[in-house]
Amino acid sequence: MLAALALTGNASSIHAEGRAARALLEEARDTVAKAVGALAPLVTFTSGGTEANNLAVAGAPVARHVVSAIEHPSVLEAARASGRPLAVAPVTAAGVIDLEALERLLPGPPALVSVMFANNETGALQPLRDVVGLCRAHGALVHCDAVQALGKVPVNLGLIGVDLLTLSAHKLGGPQGAGALVVRDGLALTPQLRGGGQERRRRAGTENLAAIAGFAAVADTKSTHVKALRDRLETELEDAMIFARDAARLPGTTCFARPGTSAETLLMAFDLEGIAVSSGSACSSGKVQPSHVLAAMGVEPEQARGAIRVSLGWNTEAADIDRFIAVWRKLRARLGKRAAA
Ligand code: PLP
């Protein structure tokens, strides 16, 4: 990133400075493409996952949308705003898309089906191979938001066979403000940002070279070590309800609620101890909003209000989990007494 910041050129300029910036940009494109088993020309850099999802949904050449009920708001709201008919595929109590219900929604005009790789609240992995199989049988395009998956589980465009793949740098330790949409070869997409020929005319605007270089620097991150740590953490949660526990999940995500304790109480108590956890779908909001993901899984609103999410990442170590467990034991003793009183 520092090398990119030191370059003065614009990657679209043809002078030497511009060519140096272009070389760094294309090197980054190659690295990000390789991280997901794709070819460089398929990668369109964006300002992040939100923009990539909006581009995929609004720009796809389809007549309607089918989305899973647990998609990120940047997919759900882009589909609603597209003005095209929208159908929502339900999920099971384990937080996984209901394939039979999805299949019933597929016959009809050309559709874009958006099913995420892994859910950002529960970590539940979605059965993408099955989703793609069903969609192919009905001629639908498939969009997959893999923002939460990259760096945590293998993400390979060829293996999953989707048409559009959303990525974001900051979920794997990269800078905020960089992401990508990987677009299957030959798929025509309507740009949402116009007024420049950058990114093969898919996304106008001078690329954020330093952030993109940062994305490339982390594209190969692998945080598989966190599964053992997450599992140890969860052994301490015996009086809590762990959501999507019955699903295959990301290695570093746990979403749980302790009956009778609000998410705000837990979040503030952890924060005072220097531990950052999230409540509900706190991705973009400063305030706690009810989770559409837990609602779709049939979790009672009372229980959903207590849900907090703990995310482990590339830099999480055993000592962090020891500390979490010590704090959790202390809080549980305190909150338990308060509830009894
Ligand atoms: N998709 C998912 C599943 C996410 O979790 C997030 C952010 O948390 C996004 C999309 C948005 O990505 P960005 O923050 O890069 O806009």
Please provide a written account of the structure.
There is one protein chain. With 341 residues, this protein is an alpha/beta fold. It has helices spanning 2-6, 16-35, 49-59, 73-81, 99-105, 128-137, 157-160, 209-218, 226-235, 263-272, 292-296, 301-304, 318-340; strands spanning 43-46, 64-68, 86-89, 111-114, 141-145, 164-168, 179-183, 241-242, 253-257, 278-279, 308-311. The strands form two sheets. A seven-stranded mixed beta sheet has the order 1-7-6-5-4-2-3, with helices on both faces. It has a four-stranded antiparallel beta sheet with strand order 8-9-11-10, covered by helices on one side. Helix 4 (73-81) links the parallel strand 2 (64-68) and strand 3. Helix 2 runs parallel beside helix 8 (209-218) and helix 9 runs parallel beside helix 13. The radius of gyration is 21 Å and the shape is globular. Bound molecules: pyridoxal-5'-phosphate. Residues 48-50, 53, 72, 74, 116, 120, 145, 147-148, 168, 170, 179, 283 line the site of pyridoxal-5'-phosphate.
